């Protein structure tokens, strides 16, 4: 099966899908739909591929891709560090038991409370994104009588040719200090005048869902050249370099991502060669994948609720979730592979448009989905590679309770996140009147 499907995904004798040795039909019966199903073997394998594919490099899991206590425990066990980008992600990592010194704290607008909490718990590195933050952090560290260990986030002027919403390395970006405008240099000079921040290195993340190694190689070259220039001009030798995440994954059979080892080899070789050429000591290197760790390990299981063929037009197939559990098709025109999974079918496919149950025409799951012609109400269908930026971007639009997520491995099922109930939906609402008074 694999392609964009998790490593243990296979069809049983009846043609139904099993993952981690568990039939999706059983999961639907016991846990309901929509349901995120995470293949634990696949997830651990992907962590290991990064650890071994990037020898001598620290791998940081970008938890924005999917941040749950259980998932963070799992990636922590696999030896990855964790990147958090808000007080909430920081809290989740701490609840998961990740050691604070193994955390990297990102964000273009961290609040005073968030920064202070990071200092209080002793987060490993704080990635400073702006002059405002530099001064804010210095003041907070001074008040605590400490020195904040920081990296400067550089905007290196590399256009990674990915979707506009996930490009971050080009000059006119909301993140970081733009190199071409002299802001990175100014940030270094400013930081060095502040007594309560210590610049240990730089960070540059160029975007997401990037195919090919060239943008990453360019990123390594630009950042190393900068470090070497700063040694000449400022007499400072920075010893840490975080090259960010952004490695593309396979959402459909048409996607051809770079093998992790090839990517690791290209980056490590570039850094080593460049360091030799520049006579610069090899810095501690880090990479920060999110999507490539959790994306491919997960599928979303839905049940078909209606099938509406419009003669000469579209056949609309509605499922029981949609843009609230996966906003990517609506937000980025993203395409995920989709399949009938509750049973097999010999009936030739026809193109249908699979949509969600939200009150929004843009609530698309997959356009022109080639699904068997006998697809019917009650069938289970699955969407591949939904581990990254789906649950983490989920909403409760139309008051749909958020789905559960389960982890499967060798026939065993463990809940990662419980399904929300209707009561959960109103738990934080504050009624203005008692119900009786309202009647
Ligand atoms: C600073 C930073 N690091 C890492 C990542 C992870 O990117 P990806 O999930 O594409 O690997 C992101 C994603 O937006 C990011 O902003």
Commentary on this structure:
With 439 residues, the protein is α/β, with parallel strands linked by helices. The protein has two domains: 10-32 and 297-426, Lyase, Ornithine Decarboxylase, Chain A, domain 1 (Beta Barrel), CATH 2.40.37; 40-294, TIM Barrel, CATH 3.20.20. The chain contains 13 helices and 21 strands. It has helices spanning 24-31, 40-53, 69-77, 87-96, 112-121, 131-143, 183-193, 214-234, 260-278, 291-294, 328-332, 422-426, 435-438; strands spanning 10-11, 17-19, 22-23, 35-39, 57-62, 81-84, 103-105, 125-128, 148-155, 177-178, 197-203, 240-242, 284-287, 298-309, 315-319, 338-340, 349-355, 364-372, 380-383, 404-409, 412-417. The strands form three sheets. Strands 4, 14, 15, 16, 17, 18, 19, 20 and 21 form a nine-stranded mixed β-sheet that branches. Strands 5-6-7-8-9-11-12-13 form an eight-stranded parallel barrel, surrounded by six helices. The protein has a three-stranded antiparallel β-sheet with strand order 1-2-3. β11, α8 (214-234) and β12 (240-242) form a beta-alpha-beta unit. α2 (40-53) runs parallel beside α9, α3 (69-77) crosses α4 and α5 (112-121) crosses α6. The N and C termini lie far apart (56 Å). The structure holds pyridoxal-5'-phosphate. Pyridoxal-5'-phosphate binds next to α10. The site of pyridoxal-5'-phosphate (PLP) has 17 residues, from α10.
Q: Could you say what the CATH topology of the largest domain is called?
A: TIM Barrel
Which descriptor suits the 3D outline? Answer: globular
Q: How many distinct helices?
A: 13
By CATH's scheme, which homologous superfamily of the largest domain applies?
Alanine racemase
Question: Which CATH class of the largest domain applies here?
Answer: Alpha Beta
Radius of gyration: 23 Å
Major beta sheet summary: 9 strands, mixed
Residue share in β-strands: 15-25%
């Amino acid at each position: 099966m694999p392609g964009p499907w998790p490593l243990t995904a296979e069809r049983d004798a009846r043609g139904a899908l099993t993952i981690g040795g568990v039939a999706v039909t059983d999961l639907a019966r016991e846990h309901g739909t929509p349901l995120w199903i995470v293949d634990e073997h696949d997830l651990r394998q992907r962590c290991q591929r990064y650890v071994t594919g990037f020898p001598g490099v620290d791998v940081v899991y970008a938890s924005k891709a999917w941040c749950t206590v259980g998932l963070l425990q799992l990636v922590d066990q696999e030896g990855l560090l964790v990147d958090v980008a808000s007080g909430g992600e920081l809290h989740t990592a701490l609840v998961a038991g990740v050691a604070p010194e193994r955390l990297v704290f990102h964000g273009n607008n961290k609040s005073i409370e968030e920064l202070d909490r990071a200092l209080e718990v002793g987060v490993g590195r704080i990635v400073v994104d702006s002059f405002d933050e530099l001064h804010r952090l210095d003041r907070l560290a001074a008040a605590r009588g400490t020195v904040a260990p920081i990296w400067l986030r550089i905007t290196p002027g590399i256009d990674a040719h990915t979707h506009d919403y996930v490009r971050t390395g080009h000059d006119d970006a909301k993140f970081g200090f733009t190199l071409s405008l002299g802001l990175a240099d100014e940030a270094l000079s400013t930081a060095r005048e502040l007594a309560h921040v210590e610049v240990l290195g730089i960070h540059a993340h160029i975007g997401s869902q990037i195919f090919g190694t060239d943008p990453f190689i360019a990123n390594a070259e630009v950042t190393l050249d900068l470090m070497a220039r700063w040694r000449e001009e400022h007499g400072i030798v920075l010893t840490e370099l975080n090259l960010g995440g952004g490695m593309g994954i396979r959402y459909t059979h048409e996607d051809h991502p770079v093998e992790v080892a090839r990517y690791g080899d290209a980056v490590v070789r570039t850094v080593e060669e460049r360091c030799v050429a520049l006579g610069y000591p090899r810095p501690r290197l880090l990479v920060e994948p999110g999507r490539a760790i959790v994306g491919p390990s997960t599928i979303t299981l839905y049940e078909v609720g209606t099938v509406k063929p419009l003669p000469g037009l579209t056949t609309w197939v509605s499922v029981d979730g949609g843009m609230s559990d996966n906003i990517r098709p609506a937000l980025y025109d993203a395409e995920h592979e989709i399949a009938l999974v509750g049973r097999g079918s010999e009936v030739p496919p026809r193109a249908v448009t699979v949509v969600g149950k939200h009150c929004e025409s843009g609530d698309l799951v997959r356009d022109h989905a080639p699904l068997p012609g006998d697809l019917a109400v009650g069938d289970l269908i699955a969407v591949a590679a939904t581990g990254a930026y789906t649950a983490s971007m989920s909403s409760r639009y139309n008051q749909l309770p958020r789905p559960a997520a389960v982890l499967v491995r060798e026939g065993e099922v463990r809940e990662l996140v419980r399904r929300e109930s209707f009561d959960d939906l109103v738990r934080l609402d504050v009624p203005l009147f008692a119900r009786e008074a309202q009647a």
